[in-house]
Design a protein that fits this description.
Blueprint: H1 4-18, H2 22-34, H3 41-54, H4 59-67, H5 74-86, H6 91-102, H7 109-121, H8 125-138, H9 144-156, H10 160-169, H11 175-187, H12 191-203, H13 210-223, H14 226-238, H15 245-257, H16 261-270, H17 276-288, H18 292-304, H19 311-324, H20 327-341, H21 347-359, H22 363-371, H23 379-392, H24 395-408, H25 413-425, H26 429-441, E1 451-455, E2 458-462, H27 472-488, H28 504-512, H29 515-526, E3 533-537, H30 543-555, E4 560-562, E5 567-569
Parallel strand pairs: 3-4
Antiparallel strand pairs: 1-2, 1-3, 4-5
Helix pairs in contact: 1-3, 3-4, 3-5, 4-5, 5-6, 5-7, 6-7, 7-8, 7-9, 8-9, 9-10, 9-11, 10-11, 11-12, 11-13, 12-13, 13-14, 13-15, 15-16, 15-17, 16-17, 17-18, 17-19, 18-19, 19-20, 19-21, 20-21, 21-22, 21-23, 22-23, 23-24, 23-25, 24-25, 25-26, 27-29
């Protein structure tokens, strides 16, 4: 028979398990103290487990329980580490881990896994290296949970090469191992590496979960690959992968960025559950397609559903107002953030307002707005305002802003190019030479522009004046034919967009070799009549190319789509709910990094306004991902890494 002490232990242990709230747990703790059982090691550990793990978020109370335990064992320490890894006091886990080693106890795989999780969450590189070395010394790295912990830490710290090496050397892998590296690639602007690894995962017959597919969809969105995104969607349906709010939001994001707005809306409307991120993604998706009023309608639906908008939602809303020229609506929603919802505006919200004011032509108000900000403006805001000054010919203000910009970010090559273009547009060639010389002296590098076109599940990339493509001769022959047809339509080159001190003929030749024209020429060559063309571009389109694309659409009866903002240029009249080109008010300046926070952590852009009748934007979600400056087709090499220039999406079947 059990002794009285054992019976009481069993009773109180059962009562601890049945506690449904932290309040009831505290009441039971008080009873244990009154009964003199609070120092019982077994019951104290149960009490600690309930306070630190079952009711996470109450680590202060868990620490109080822990501090009253005279000789905590490794289980007790691990319980505290687990609780800290889930709480806002995660930093305490690192000091507690050091205390474990100082006490003479030897940590186990649980100890290592919990503290590595904290190092990854807090992006602690030094401490992570220290713990990893200890793990290797103790021989714990063979444990799958520990190996996955090291892998996640390396990815969280942005050490993708190291993470891949760890992954390749793992003796055993589970779906979490694959998902971690695929997500790391996708979230760090390496979409082709993500897709290559996903292909390897399929060949290994490893089970693919929704989290992995969400990362793959993110890679598709960065590449602007609608066909591959549709394939992933079909895979989800075929294998009955549950579409939860994360996977559903990823589908909405992918379709929005790849030009499939109707499909994005269908997925969104069919989602049984929507959180703030899902609503924000749909609002942002409509915004990048220039449908600001419809985006605000979705925002109104969100509020009617009693879901409280957060700072990400307001970034999407302000972006929608900015992208559609809804000045008064933008001011109203910016004011309501703090007034109604108590959300302090962050730099991305101020950026949307500056963009909105700039595109409304209110340059001085935008400058005053920046100067009155309670937080320090970054280079993105100054770039947007500087480009606005260039468009509206405000030379005096642009000189002041140029100084701010180059002082704030002296190594950003795009800044020097923008300042140089401002001077060039006003004919100040001596200042252009001075700025270009300063750029060279400071070794500031500019991102090179490229255009990609997806044909038959294969991507082809071009840079300006590219002659490296296997079909170069045919492409340039098609360019000549296109130019003949353009001139028969009355096309005259807008050489003002060539901001170099050269003669008119050289300017016309330079315009004719822009990467988007090469991509379109290749697309016309390789596709049947009336087939839509989808071009992906990492930088803005010049005003002359914009006019040319409109004419080419009419001459060849093609819909030419730039999927990352959902803009279609068509010779046919579009229905009222389709995209009306004349509605687009384009981004000003260069890349705005804050839109990445709108839609699942992906990059965002600012595209310059070109004319008053038809505007379009060419935006890329590639972000930090830099392609080789040669035209190529993407396929998987013999080692299934994206190192050899080619990749066929059909192989993913």
């Amino acid at each position: 028979m059990q002794s009285v002490v054992e019976q009481r232990r069993s009773l109180f242990s059962s009562l601890i398990r049945r506690c449904s709230s932290i309040l009831s747990l505290k009441s039971l703790h008080a009873l244990l103290i009154r009964e003199g059982l609070d120092q019982d090691g077994f019951l104290a550990s149960k009490l600690l487990q309930a306070s630190a793990v079952s009711f996470s978020g109450h680590m202060d109370y868990a620490h109080l329980v822990f501090s009253r335990m005279p000789n905590p064992n490794l289980f007790v320490y691990n319980t505290m580490l687990q609780g800290y890894s889930r709480s806002n006091s995660a930093i305490c886990a690192i000091s507690l881990y050091r205390r474990i080693h100082g006490s003479g106890l030897r940590g186990n795989s649980f100890t290592a896994a919990f503290v590595l999780k904290v190092c990854g969450r807090l992006v602690r590189v030094v401490e992570g290296n220290e713990i990893r070395a200890q793990v290797l010394k103790m021989g714990l790295d063979s444990d799958l949970a520990v190996a996955n912990g090291i892998l996640k830490w390396a990815v969280a710290c942005g050490r993708l090469d190291e993470a891949r090496k760890i992954f390749d050397e793992m003796a055993e892998r589970d779906p979490a191992s694959w998902s971690t590296v695929i997500a790391g690639y996708s979230q760090n602007g390496m979409p082709r590496d993500a897709l290559a690894l996903f292909r390897e995962m399929q060949r290994s017959s490893m089970e693919v979960d929704g989290f992995t597919l969400a990362s793959v969809l993110g890679a598709c969105a960065q590449l602007g690959s609608l066909d591959l995104g549709r394939w992933v969607h079909a895979y989800i349906d075929k294998h009955d992968v549950p579409v939860d709010v994360v996977l559903g939001t990823s589908l909405v994001d992918m379709y929005s960025k790849c030009g499939g707005l109707a499909e994005a809306l269908k997925v969104f409307n069919n989602m049984p559950e929507k959180d703030a991120l899902a609503w924000s993604s749909m609002i942002g998706g409509l915004a990048i397609h220039g449908l600001g009023e419809r985006a605000l309608e979705i925002f109104a639906q969100m509020k009617r559903s009693n879901l409280r908008p957060n700072c990400v939602t307001f970034t999407s809303v302000l972006f929608a107002c900015s992208h559609s020229g809804l000045l008064e609506e933008g001011k109203f929603h910016f004011d309501s953030m703090s007034r109604k919802y108590g959300i302090a505006p962050q730099i991305e919200h101020y950026g949307c307002m500056v963009d909105l004011l700039c595109r409304a032509g209110q340059t001085q108000e935008a400058y005053d707005f920046i100067m009155s900000m309670p937080i320090k403006p970054n280079e993105v805001l100054w770039r947007a305002l500087l480009n606005c000054c260039r468009i509206h010919g405000d030379v005096e203000l642009s000189s002041c802003i140029s100084k701010h910009l180059l002082e704030l970010d002296p190594h950003g090559g795009d800044n020097y190019v923008l300042v140089s273009n401002v001077y060039a547009s006003s004919g100040r060639w001596s200042d252009v030479t001075r700025v270009r010389g300063l750029m060279k002296k400071r070794k500031a590098e500019k991102e090179h522009g490229y255009s990609m076109i997806e044909l038959n599940n294969t991507f082809h990339e071009f840079v300006m004046g590219d002659e490296s493509h296997p079909h170069t001769a045919e492409i340039y022959e098609m360019l000549d034919k296109m130019n003949v047809k353009l001139k028969s339509e009355g096309y005259v080159a807008t050489t003002a967009d060539v901001l170099h001190d050269i003669d008119e003929e050289e300017k016309e030749n330079a315009l004719g070799l822009h990467s988007e024209r090469l991509a379109i020429a290749f697309g016309i060559l390789q596709t049947s009549d009336n087939q839509p063309l989808r071009v992906i571009k990492n930088l803005r389109v010049c005003g002359d190319c914009h006019s040319v694309i409109k004419l080419l659409s009419r001459v060849y009866s093609r819909v030419i789509t730039f999927p990352h903002i959902g803009v279609s240029i068509s010779s046919r009249k579009l229905p009222s709910k389709k995209l009306q080109i004349s509605q687009y008010i384009l981004f000003i300046g260069h890349c705005l990094p804050f839109i990445n926070m709108i839609i699942l952590g992906l990059p965002i852009w600012l595209v310059e306004e070109f004319d008053q009748t038809v505007q379009t934007g060419i935006v890329s979600g590639i972000g930090a991902f830099t392609l080789h400056p040669l035209a190529f087709c993407i396929q998987v090499s013999t080692d299934d890494r994206f190192e050899t220039k080619s990749w066929d999406t059909k192989s993913l079947d």
